Amino acid sequence: MKTTLNYFLFDYDGTLCHTHDTINRAIIETFKAYHLDVPAEEQRLQAIGSGSTIYQAIRAMHPMGKTLPIEQVNSMVNSYRAIYTDIDTQYTTLFGGAATLLSGLKAKGKIVAVLSNKGFQTVTKSLRSFDLEQYTDLLIADGSPVMKDLNMKPDPASYVSVIKKHFRIEADSEVLMTGDTYSDLLFAKNCGIKSCWASYGYGNQQACKSLNPDYQITSLKDFDKIVSL
């Protein structure tokens, strides 16, 4: 059923962009650079599909786990991001219909924001390389100037303290969060806004279904079932 939605929030990895290969390769090369055993494929897939920050993912995959000193976490994150940036344009691709969807929403006068737990500079560069920045009214990512010390998804801080105030949103019912992971859908639930599960992405199917998203799409082209473009 189509409804009145005016604010569209999109996750990036696994929702607008196919970044699986890029993330996977960057993880492998980062652990090799620190002379560590490369995490098993299952661990890497779990990290990619969790929607967590790279800081959380590094700790989860590292042999020392939560006891890993923050200085080493930061060092590995910096290495990961440098490697990711080097290979991003080589391995990252847009999901079919991404540019058409965002341009269509803007043509209808809708507000579009991208919310990602990855680095702000990385997402900014990627948006520009795919010519999506022109359709994006706001980018929320790790290191965004507007975020300051606020927590990332699934914490609702970015919505309550930034997005809602920035766009002067009066009705949460007009806002839709689209993402592929449990973290994205939990974010929507925590914010009290509608959710759309991009089931073609990287999230755990059972975990995502457990949150009973308002909508489910198997490709971005399914978005016309939610809003007329």
State the main characteristics.
229 residues, alpha/beta, Rossmann fold, DNA polymerase, domain 1, 2 domains, 6-stranded parallel beta sheet, two-stranded antiparallel sheet, 9 helices, globular
Strand order of the largest sheet: 5-4-1-6-7-8
CATH superfamily of the largest domain: HAD superfamily/HAD-like
One letter per element, helices H and strands E, the order comes to: EEHHHHEHEHEHEHEHE
- Proper CATH architecture of the largest domain: 3-Layer(aba) Sandwich
Could you tell me how far the N terminus lies from the C terminus, measured between alpha carbons in angstroms?
14 Å
Radius of gyration: 17 Å
Instruction: Indicate the mean pLDDT.
Output: 93
- Determine the strand fraction and express it as a percent band: 15-25%
Helix/strand structural class? alpha/beta
Globally, the shape reads globular
**Tally the helices: what do you get?**
9
Segments where pLDDT lies below 50 for 5+ residues?
Answer: none
The total number of structural domains is 2
Main sheet properties:
6 strands, parallel
**Do you know the CATH topology of the largest domain?**
Rossmann fold
CATH class of the largest domain: Alpha Beta
Binned, the helix content reads 40-55%
How many β-strand runs?
A: 8
